[in-house]
Amino acid sequence: MSDKSKKTNDETNETLTNRQGHPVTNNQSLRTVGNRGPSTLENYDFLEKISHFDRERIPERVVHARGAGAHGYFVPTGKAGDEPISKYTRAKVFQEEGKKTPVFVRFSSVIHGGTSPETLRDPRGFAVKFYTEDGNWDLVGNNLKIFFIRDAMKFPDLIHAFKPDPVTNIQDGRRIFDFCSSSPETFHMVTFVFSPWGIPANYRMMQGSGVNTYKWVNEEGKAVLVKYHWEPKQGIKNLTQQEANEIQATNFNHATQDLYEAIERGDYPEWDLNVQIMSDDDHPELDFDPLDDTKIWPKDEFPWLHVGTMVLNKNPEDYFTEVEQAAFGTGVLVDGLDFSDDKMLQGRTFSYSDTQRHRVGANYLQLPINAPKKRTATNQTGGQMQYEVGRGSQSPHINYEPSTVGGLKEANQTGKEYTPMVEGKLVRETIDRQNNTKQAGETFREFEDWEKDDLISNLVAALAPADKRIQEKMIALAEEADEEYGRRLKEGLAAASEHTESSKPLGGTDNPEDAVRKGHEADPY
Q: Which residue, of 14, 24, 39, 339, has the greatest Cβ tally within 10 A?
């Protein structure tokens, strides 16, 4: 490896160079024929500078494009509630009380683009990378504890419906509710997203959830189902649509700014990590399937067990290098953590890592932000932007396994391997016990009056331009969930009957003609 501290006699630590290490003596002017030009082709410093500038964006994430991040650490309690955590999992990250594991967290919005306002109605991503002694563990989730759908087959359609119209390029509530009204399992998430819970006040004061159901495996190879919940010690705050509009009028980076400035002033945000545990079976006594991502596990039946605390205490030194290139995947699990049969989790596990290879490159795990903070030794080789071979002490001629003459060897299995019984016909069917609206009704009844008011107002505004058939479907779902919910939505839509048929993004109120009326005339120059 080269010594990057070396410099020529006339260089200092502040001397500008190009990527080849050449000192740049003129960073103001092209090389031209006379000071008016034309320029010459051999402008090497300029060509290197502008060609890199042309490529300084990598493909934007299809979802979770707008994000902010920070470094910190996780400290376990060594217990799950009052019991030793080893009863449930052998994952080393949880075993030793007080042990610090470095983490990097990326918060994000889901649907909107990389420079979109942070006041827009949207779920928020909450992804945590634990740099454990056994390698990386990614806990990839959202601020809300459920999701719109329960089957990964529907994910591209869901996102297409929430993304801008492919013709007008405007997000359109009519398209959103066309999909949601025909997919009743979305109604619980719709109830959350169109309430103030759809616009968290900032990243520090929002909950996080793994959303999917995972498994924990102990030393004996026995497993339990588990759900993860991050609880902010700063408290929880959400915004009404009107409050969000007022913030957006003056600051569309408010959540990123809030996180950065809080850490800079030493006000480090903290979250307690709690888990819910359930035996590993299908629980026929419940009126929902525990693997259904549209459902919450009732807290009174499956209490939260405190397992540790996370602190964020360091801002990124470079946004692109750390936040933009950070890559997460639901399949990144360490020993003692495992997958459940959750169909959304199964689909996400391929999709997340696949999109990182497309977006950042085949060697994205060699980037410092993504690399584990421990040794790695693989037989993977090649690919765009490889900058280290990443092998162990084997012969450099042996990049395969098994080998008798100096290759890598398999690790020993310490804990007993988890071997669940899997049996059944291969089918394409939805799960039983769908119960699409019951929990939505329970959620509505738990809302405070101001949350109910904002929910109904937002739904009416977004549904008003929609086809009557779509409105009727949504009203029927609301009536099935709760009598008051259905009645208020029906009355609100009836009162808004003199709506325009124009498309409107979520939260949009003004007609584009207002800009014409309010604009100030100017003479050409």
A: 339
What is d(CA 345, CA 214) in angstroms, rounded to the nearest whole number?
Answer: 8
Instruction: Give residue 39's identity as a one-letter amino acid code.
Output: S
10 Å CB burial of residue 327 (0-12, 13-18, 19+) is: buried
Distance (Å, whole) CA 486 – CA 474: 9
Q: Which residue in 431, 505, 463 sits closest to 149, CA to CA?
A: 431
The Cα–Cα gap between 17 and 5 comes to 13
Return the SS3 of 310: strand
**Token pair belonging to 490:** 């029906």
Query: At 414, which helix (H) or strand (E)?
Result: none
What is the distance between the alpha carbons of residues 14 and 326, in angstroms, rounded to a whole number?
28
pLDDT digits (tens, 9 = 90+) for 103-156: 999 999 999 999 999 999 999 999 999 999 999 999 999 999 999 999 998 999
Residue 352 counted as an annotated binding residue: yes
Residue 231 token pair: 């609880």
CA 52 from chain centre, in angstroms, equals 28
Cross-strand pairs, 271 = 232, 310
Q: Are 277 and 305 within 8 A, CB to CB?
A: yes
CA distances from 235 to 106, 231, 239, 251, 254 (A): 19, 8, 14, 22, 18
Look at residue 461 and tell me whether its pLDDT is greater than 50: yes
Please report which helix (H) or strand (E) contains residue 213, including its range. Answer: none
Residue 1: per-residue pLDDT: 44
Alpha-carbon distance 399 to 391, whole Å?
8
Q: What is the set of active-site residues?
A: 64, 142
283's tokens: 């629980």
Place of tokens 């619980």: 188
In this predicted model, what pLDDT tens digit does every residue of 216-270 receive, in sequence order?
A: 999 999 999 999 999 999 999 999 999 999 999 999 999 999 999 999 999 999 9
Please report how many Cα atoms fall inside a 13 Å half-sphere around the Cα of residue 10, on the Cβ side: 5
Cβ(98)–Cβ(75) below 8 Å: yes
